Amino acid sequence: MTKLEEYFMRIGFKEPYDKPDLKTLIQLQEHFIRSVPFENLDIFCGEQIVLDFDAIFNKIVRCKRGGWCCENNQLFSWALKELGYNIINLGARSFNNKKNDYNPFVSHFITKVIIDGKSFLADVGYGVSGQTWQPLELILDKKQPQGPGDYQFIEEKGMWHLVKFVRKIDIPNEAFAKSPLLSTNPCRRLYCFNMEPREINSFKEICYYLQTSPDSQLNGKAICTLQTPTGVRAVIGKTYSEVTYSYQDGADLYDMSTVAEEEMEKMFKEKFGIDLKGKFVPQNTSYYTL
Question: Which of 20, 36, 167, 220 allows an S-S link to 286, with CB 3.0 to 4.6 Å?
Fold first, then answer.
């Protein structure tokens, strides 16, 4: 079995493949985000996250784990290249909701895909409720509706900014009505970027920083999220959430509950298909939004 065949099995892709077109790209992204979680659990199992492709392939494809952006998007861009797509990898600065500003460093790995003269942004490594379900056409000031909400690119000072327009949130469990995991801004900024090509090696230093710095949002809170046909499920810190998009006209349903520490590994396996090998030692100290 070739690596590409193994990859297809991992994401459940059985569609006929004819050529590197937009229809297939959409199918590939949808299969990936519903099969491979966005997660940082290695940090809390005493393991190091590395950017070596063979290690990532073994972790995600053969061990059926997930990863964060530099892992998931690197694997996805590899598959696109193998299939004949014209790709250019880019880097973005993520928006920090606590600071209400973009992080000063480029840490988010994304992929530009060129099809029949049009450019699209493919991203399978953002996770949570900001994760796009399909590629976005790289065109300014045009709302692009998807299941999670409307996305739009705007330009400010020579940078492209991706924003998501958030629907009304309904929360059955009133104890979570004011949870810090919730973003109340109706127009949520996700990240900004330019069109400068990036190699994966340029992310090695920031990959180490995100795992070790006490200032890293990804170092102080266990995160595991997976897209579903109707929304997204997520464990962030000690909170489990199941989000149903557009369960009513103009509203998303957020079903949130607290997970007991001794139940977390069981939940990772049952809800996300992740069987951790190392001892999971949770932390819940950093700020992160669903």
Answer: 220
